[in-house]
Amino acid sequence: MGSSRKHSGICPEPDHEQGGCCIHIVECEMNNRGSTGAYLTWEKLGVAVSSSSGSADKNGYKSVLTDATGYAKPGEIVAIMGPSGCGKSTLLDSLAGMYYFKAYMTQEQVLTWTLTVKETVYYSAELQLPKSMPKSEKMERADKTIREMGLQNSMNTRIGGWGIKGLSGGQKRRLSICLELLTHPKLLLLDEPMSGLDSASSYYVMSRIVKLTQQYQMTVVTAIHQPSSQVFGLFNNLCLLSLGKTLYFGPTFAANQFFAVNGFPCPELQSPADHYLMTINTDFDEDTDIGNIPDEVIHVLAEAYKSSEVYMETQREIATLCAKEGELIEGRGGLQASFITQCMVLSARSFKNMYRDLGYYWLRLGIYIALGFALGTLFYEIGFEFDSISVSFMLKC
Ligand SMILES: Nc1ncnc2c1ncn2[C@@H]1O[C@H](COP(=O)(O)OP(=O)(O)OP(=O)(O)O)[C@@H](O)[C@H]1O
């Protein structure tokens, strides 16, 4: 590793229940090749929310994430998996809380439904890419990213929304990924990027993300629900959560052995990802057919993980990554569009959105014309005398 780095960290005061927690990120020059990469680590990360339910503690707080520990390195993808409600989004939100994070795709779609795919990506390219980059190059990058996400046949299709069918749910998801990948961010957080995609599309989209991750040495952390075996095989590290606890963080290929050693071997012909999720799901205690009580399984695995060699290795890796030192490589400024460009692009986008949106522009225009006409006719042929004004006004009212 070279010596240059960007560094930031959040290490709040140790909490009496959760212990100390720390999120740490360094951007280092890699292998002296001139390119840089972001190293992200999180240790003993806990999140509690105020709650009035029975599971809250005496202070009215419910723990939704406990002692989460892990790391992510350039050129690699960490997959966060676990049953619904286990804390995947909470972990990603906590990591995204770093002021330095570059790109975060949440579960909510934030797309302007009146624009086409091409317009959406072009506008985003103009706003996000460095002002030093020529416009032709920005458009070229936008076209390439659209093709990489397999949206080239829908370039001129409107996103669609209220009353207008446009892109499908999966296509919208791919478009959202496009917008995040445009800048080749050093750190990319994705929350359920595959939702709405069929298994083949999921594989193609994820393998393209892997390709870009390796090509641009991006650091990627993604929450994912139910990856197929092929998609699962693309991840470098796996973070398994249940009830807010980390049951496993380590190499994806080593998870099978961890489960087998602790009494939950993956049956032959079953997808490992499915097996892990079925084993640690606590939502359907009565219907479970694996013969174990889910809460006990979580306890056994959480304890086994903390005394495993994989956990020790994770701790060693985090210590190494946190110890990286160096200098600032580049300032954050200079990467965005200039103020003038931002004004022009946003005005053009807003104008297009307004005149294509029936409710937003045309309906309002109709209402204002009708209102103007009504107000105008109030004084029609009113006369010029004082009496005519008062009589006419009384009549009209
Ligand atoms: N701000 C909050 N206030 C109250 N409860 C919260 C808050 N944030 C998260 N939670 C609770 O924490 C738990 C974990 O939520 P989270 O969204 O992280 O789960 P998830 O694993 O991403 O679920 P899914 O896979 O269904 O999206 C849920 O029970 C949720 O209700």
Protein model, in words:
This protein is α/β, with parallel strands linked by helices and 397 residues long. It has two domains: 5-345, 3-Layer(aba) Sandwich (Rossmann fold), CATH 3.40.50; 357-396. Helices cover 41% and strands 18% of the residues. It has 13 helices and ten strands. Strands 6-7-8-5-9-10 form a six-stranded mixed beta sheet, with helices on both faces. Helix 2 (117-128) packs across helix 3 (135-148). It starts with a strand and ends with a helix. 33% of the residues are buried. The model is unreliable at 1-20 and 326-334 (pLDDT under 50). Adenosine-5'-triphosphate is lined by residues 49, 64, 82, 84-90. This is ABC transporter domain-containing protein.
Give the amount of beta strand, in percent. Answer: 15-25%
Instruction: Please tell me what the overall shape is.
Output: elongated
The strand line-up of the biggest sheet is 6-7-8-5-9-10
What share of residues is helical? Answer: 40-55%
Average of the residue pLDDT scores: 81
User: SSE order, as H and E?
Assistant: EEEEEHEHHHEHEHEEHHHHHHH
Number of domains: 2
Please mark out the parts with pLDDT under 50 across 5 or more consecutive residues, or reply none. 1-20, 326-334
Radius of gyration: 27 Å
* Tally of DSSP β-strands: 10
**Which structural class fits the helix and strand makeup?**
alpha/beta
- Full CATH superfamily name of the largest domain: P-loop containing nucleotide triphosphate hydrolases
Largest sheet: 6 strands, mixed
What is the first-to-last residue Cα distance? Answer: 82 Å
CATH topology category name of the largest domain: Rossmann fold
What ligand molecules are bound, each kind once? adenosine-5'-triphosphate
Count of alpha and pi helical runs: 13
